[in-house]
Amino acid sequence: MLPKSLVLALGLILAAPLAHAADAPFAKQEAVASQLRDTALKGSGAYDILESLTTEIGARPAGSTALLRAADWGAARMKALGYDKVTVESFKVPGWKRGAETAEVTAPFPQKLVITALGGSVATPAAGLSAPVVLFKRYDDLLAQAPGSLTGKIVVVTERIIRAQDGAGYGAGYRIRGAGASEAAKRGAVGYMLRSLGTDSHRVPHTGTMAYDPAAPKIPAAALSNPDADLLEHMLARGVPITVKMLLTPTFGPELEARTVVGEITGREAPQEVVLIGGHLDSWDLGTGAIDDGAGVAITMAAGKLILDQPLRPRRTVRVVLWGAEEIGKAGEAFAKVHGPEVANHVLASESDFGAGPVLKIGLPKTKGGEGFAEALMRVLGPAGVVYDRQDAVSGGADVEEMAELGMPVASLRQNGLDYFDWHHTPDDTLDKVKANELDQNVAVWSALAWMAADSAASFRAPAK
Amino acid sequence: MLPKSLVLALGLILAAPLAHAADAPFAKQEAVASQLRDTALKGSGAYDILESLTTEIGARPAGSTALLRAADWGAARMKALGYDKVTVESFKVPGWKRGAETAEVTAPFPQKLVITALGGSVATPAAGLSAPVVLFKRYDDLLAQAPGSLTGKIVVVTERIIRAQDGAGYGAGYRIRGAGASEAAKRGAVGYMLRSLGTDSHRVPHTGTMAYDPAAPKIPAAALSNPDADLLEHMLARGVPITVKMLLTPTFGPELEARTVVGEITGREAPQEVVLIGGHLDSWDLGTGAIDDGAGVAITMAAGKLILDQPLRPRRTVRVVLWGAEEIGKAGEAFAKVHGPEVANHVLASESDFGAGPVLKIGLPKTKGGEGFAEALMRVLGPAGVVYDRQDAVSGGADVEEMAELGMPVASLRQNGLDYFDWHHTPDDTLDKVKANELDQNVAVWSALAWMAADSAASFRAPAK
User: Are residues A72 and A117 in the same domain?
Assistant: First the structure.
């Protein structure tokens, strides 16, 4: 036994019966949630949903016709699963499209490099861009360069991200992809490449968004596969000038349509009050979007289905949202435009968007009128391998951020993402990376949490000061 | 202790001092070989050689200018390492070159597929080849089809190879790649794709040679990455017709030049007698040829260097050969054309061509005048983690086959290849897959064996019946 003070210091509440279930707060909800958990762990149906999405649709970037097909798929699938109401919300996204993307060392060691354009990158000249390379092993070393000192160069940053269960490495490295091109351009560079923000060692580069600083010229930006980044490091270590030619031909066209699908399980007593869960339907264009974020789509759709299978609807409404433009950061904004006015009715929200690994920890917002909720929830989720993290800086995911800023309470369901950045945003984001039993564990957690929040009268808004 | 009968039944001789070293046969050779082993295990230099080859040359298919640069590299490197004599042998290889290689499902589930042309494949029509797919999960199921039954189809075979330490899965699957296109064509197919002969689950297809049966039409042939083979299985499981479009634009040109490099350590007493070791210098065109077969090149070049560092040359000559066209099966033939006449002078030969994993087992040919050789060798190699496999069906590697057929004795050095087919013949065959200490273990084994065979008077020719 740990002393109680230590348990509190660790921020954990261990799953143990604190009182006879019938006497405890949320006892009824806990009983149903335990059933949902056990049903999910025996086979939640999530894998079949994910298999269907990745097989029948595959890659579905926001703005593509594949995303429109995915929205049709999602709406049809939700109707078939028995959702009470399914709506599709249409919005516009920028018309960026990937083109050719090749690179090679032309001298003195001619070799091909495997690259992919970053989302939003401008094109190189049609004949390609040839320039000497300047390589920085740390991003801060690039930032330390004087303006003009990199004139005419292709800048390569090969800083590695660490492998971390919670994705901290990606978080720390994010700026290298997001801001690196403009930082290089401010110093005179004509092209930019980074080591992929990935923890793998395969010849599959990791794409992702970048943004241009209006104060700098726009230069083409790409990610190298990690073995290619290694290769450039080995070449540059010889102290001889290395010339690289890169060719990117992405295009910018008129705005395109994207769609978010909302499936509703209508509450039996307080249907205007909403518990919001979901994943994002769009994916990058390189893989089939299995882990990012077919998994989140499948987990939350399946969680909704298990709730629908209950003899009664929960007190409140559960909405399962399949956002249609997370990867380019446009879905949450569009969603808030439609649903912002109803924000006060939103009880609790969270997005599943960290792959298919099991949920390890839960963080909840402060509650009012919900005392005992976390304890009851953890009696359900402890046996599924989840701990309560009292210290969690709750965040609900990219697509609920705008609504959270308007006051919507959000919960964090933290998954094991140790392998997530091996495949994230690459051609390797495919179904074979997903284990059905881990999806089932996620469904157990999401269905239990959604049921308990939706069937109760708990509030997750912090008390007014 | 195991009973001696069991030890013999297992085909193993345990490494243990059977007699005082100075009294034992091959005692002098054993003493030097033990030193070579210990030196190699402390750092053999092989990794630096491999780093140089993969960085400065990279992919080097037979017939490419990169292979000619690699031959220059090999000759210069051997001279710098102090080899007594370095020669370059030029020969001709077919002028096949890879072109574009794309594929996609066009209906009813439009998705891109990642493929690579098999070496020697003909091209598709320039606009691509569109046809309905027939999928076989087992190659024998294709062979069971009647002539004409696959008319107009693209045949896909998705049989998996098993992961096995000795590469048995690849051996068993080899015919699927080598002969599948013609077997499909005999039954009317217009195109052929196989699941890669690989044990990985990455979006990197495995190329390799194939051959056409003159009795069948030549149809284009490609390997799918394994996740793409999975995807087609998932699609076909729906029982609906699937149409695939494949585009391959390889070209056949005039014969091209390839080169084999031979470095010699000239024997001090019987220089005409030759112990032959080596690896192949050519690689496939997709990766940088680190494991296949930069490793073998580096291991045997470094083994030779350790022998050169001895105060005396061995009695006999050691030749380190870097064959220049193994992947397309042309180097051994060219080598035998030059060296066949001297075959009687070749004492023992073997090629290192199974990646960079440690040597686990050794198989030797029957000996005459070499009694006690294996025992002495195993006293040296046992501490390096090697066992003697008395049952081994000795084979020396693809590039010594022709010389072996002429009577050259060959030895087998069996490596741990459990991961080898994760990367073999893919873009992922890069330096990061190699561990320096495992290369060192290989060098320990090769230098010890080469020294003992070359410094002794042992014969490995079976006694005349």
Answer: no
pTM confidence score? 0.93
With 70 as the cut, is the pLDDT of residue B129 above it? yes
Which residues constitute the domain of residue A199?
Answer: 99-249
Q: Say which of A326, A401, A402, A438 is annotated catalytic.
A: A326
Q: CB-CB: which of A57, A234, A428 is closest to B55? A: A234
238-257 in chain A: CB under 8 A from chain B: 238
My answer on whether A90 and A114 are in the same domain is: no
Report the half-sphere exposure of B166 (CA within 13 A, side-chain side): 12
Whether residues B311 and B402 fall in one domain: yes
* Partner-chain contact A55 B235, CB within 8 Å: yes
pLDDT in tens, A323-380: 999 999 999 999 999 999 999 999 999 999 999 999 999 999 977 667 899 999 999 9
The shortest C-alpha distance from B277 to chain A (Å) reads 28
* Cβ(A440)–Cβ(A384) below 8 Å: no
B227/A55 Cβ within 8 A: no
Question: The domain that contains A124 carries what CATH number?
Answer: 3.50.30.30
| Radius of gyration of the CA atoms of chain A, in A | 24
Whether residue A465 lies inside any domain: the answer is: no
B461 part of a folded domain = no
Residue A278 resides in a domain: yes
Q: Is residue B464 part of a domain?
A: no
> A111 vs B230: CB contact, 8 Å cut-off?
no
The confidence score (pLDDT) of residue B22 equals 53
Q: What is the C-alpha to C-alpha distance for residues B51 and B57, in angstroms, rounded to an integer?
A: 10
- Token pair belonging to A304: 């909704």
Residues B199 and B302 reside in one and the same domain = no
B432 and A227 within 8 Å at the Cβ level: the answer is: yes
Is B273 a residue of the active site?
no
Shared domain check, A238 and A268 = no
Q: How far apart are CA B328 and CA A96, in angstroms?
A: 42
Nearest-angstrom CA–CA distance, B114 and B41? 41
What is the total count of domains within chain B? 2
Residue A221 sits in the same domain as residue A103: yes
- Residues of B with Cβ-Cβ distance to A227 under 8 angstroms: 288, 428, 430-432
What interface predicted TM-score (ipTM) does this complex get?
A: 0.93
